[in-house]
Amino acid sequence: MISIIIPTWNEEKYLPILLECIKKQTSKNYEIIVADANSTDMTLKIARKYGCRIVKGGSPAVGRNNGAKVAKNNILLFLDADVQFDNNFLKKAINEFKKRKLDIAGVFLTPLSNKLIDRIFISIFNLIIFIVQFFCPHASGSSIFCRKWLYNRVKGFDKTVKLGEELDYIHRCSKLGKFRILKRVRVGLSMRRFDKEGRIKVGTRHLMSTLYRIFFGQIRIDVFKYNLRYQK
Questions:
Q1: For position 169, what pLDDT does the model report?
Q2: C-alpha torsion angle, residues 33, 36, 42, 44 (rounded to 10)
Q3: Pairwise CA distance, residues 1 & 91, whole Å
Q4: Fewest CB within 10 angstroms: 14, 27, 72, 163, which?
Q5: What are the tens digits of pLDDT across the range 106-146?
């Protein structure tokens, strides 16, 4: 029913937590594809232990595309390796996805943090994506549901986009299929990048990149010097 695609690079700390979340799902009709970008830690060993199919990765866009190419099911779920969710996530998400006749969907987020600033930041993000979903589709790349026919029609993620490739993908998909934010599920989001780089720096980059896209289009040059490698 659903193919779960997870790009990885040195995710030995986070991947087993996600795979345990998937293993405990009440809905078992899925396959897991790990697109690995030459990890040097235990990531691949962990993926094999959980029976994941492994393909060649690279940047997030390349990894997602390579995973989608071998996916067997008609619904794709692109996940970051550091997310978490409850045991009924897949069942509730797929039921809502089908009931609302969606072709592509994002989710609301919950920070995996006890810091008030993180709860405020994510709450603002959730509010924004809820409001703009009707006229300017936007969602976190950490969890995207999409029908495979739509993925094929737009030819997947654009690997030439240096930052915000998931936003470009959602935008192109929404022109051909129905996009909405799922109401009944939430995904726990790791705040590791915020912890490592600082909340002001990450927030400023998000704001500046949004303004760049408004005035100049998709970010195809590394103007923000953003490291697409995954952070430990």
A1: 97
A2: 40
A3: 11
A4: 72
A5: 999 999 999 999 999 999 999 999 999 999 999 999 999 99
